[in-house]
Amino acid sequence: MLARLLALGSIILSGPAHALEIVVNNPEVYAGDTIEHDGNTLKLEGEVLGGVDIQKVTINGRKVAMATRDLMVEELEEEGSPFRGVVQLEGGDNAVEIKAVDVGGETVVLSFTVRVDADALSGTVYALVVAVNDYQDDRISDLRFAEPDALLIKETMTDPLYGVVKAEN
Q1: Which residues on neighbouring strands pair with residue 44, listed in sequence order?
Q2: What is the pLDDT of residues 56-78, one digit of tens each?
């Protein structure tokens, strides 16, 4: 009987581990890699595998968007928690660290380097956002939400998660 229990125990103990793993699908990159990039932003898509409920994913310390599987552009091969994020880059080597934490506190980190040729950068991006709520011409109806909408557009464009414009521009 003891032998049967020990055998049963070994089956349970030798089951698959549920360790977290970060997989970056776009661009395909692995821990320790150095990849070349020719722009000042890098969009990342991936997923966290092995966790029950992923609490958050960060890229270089900034929380990124967690998407439902049906919102991802590419078909994902395994069940996981999809994420998307944007990294602002400068000329030279840029360290990227993706960190995921599940509700149980288990943490996994994937780090890699993005090398950008400073001469290849496409320049500085500027944005001019204009909003008019109150029109002088009485034939044009005034608007209520143009200014708040413009502020939200500015916030989105300058947010490193979504935008490509530096706040000072």
Answers
A1: 85
A2: 999 999 888 886 544 444 444 45
